[in-house]
Automatic annotation (TrEMBL):
Domain of life: Eukaryota
Entry's Gene Ontology cellular component terms: cytosol
Native organism taxonomy: Eukaryota, Metazoa, Echinodermata, Eleutherozoa, Echinozoa
Family to which this protein belongs: Belongs to the FAM72 family.
Pfam family, one: YPEH2ZP
Record protein name field: Protein FAM72A
Source organism per UniProt: Strongylocentrotus purpuratus
Amino acid sequence: MHSSFKKKPVVQLVCRFCDSCICKRGMKAVLLADTNMELYSTDAPCAGKISNVDKPYSTGKCECRISDTACNHCGNNVGYTIMIPCVPCLQSCNNGHLWIFNSTVVWAEGQLDKSGCDVLRWDSLSECPGDDNSQESFHEDKDDIDCIR
Ligand SMILES: [Zn+2]
Ligand SMILES: [Zn+2]
């Protein structure tokens, strides 16, 4: 991950429709194509909290194949996941996160670090998600998607 991402606070993301926690490792992000659009991204959502819906599709802006995601508890759409990133996107400097949440449908809550005095930031998170967050398929391709720098 590029160093500029490491100082960002880690946020917990909660579905606005049903108050389920869907991600403990969220990062606030902006869409490169539209910087007014606020998003949250993660490298690993909580296991079993969200599912892909419908078939993968491309947005037309690039060749990435993406799939919409929905909250498993209430079924509402919460964002999307990049199933197959395209080459230009892989080569651009990004945070390597393939799950994106729409800021209008999730609440973000800051978290405290181990000392309990400071906000938890990405550089104090372990590289690998903890057991409760892990997604098998993600680990296999993680090295390929991290920022090249
Ligand atoms: Zn792309
Ligand atoms: Zn929900």
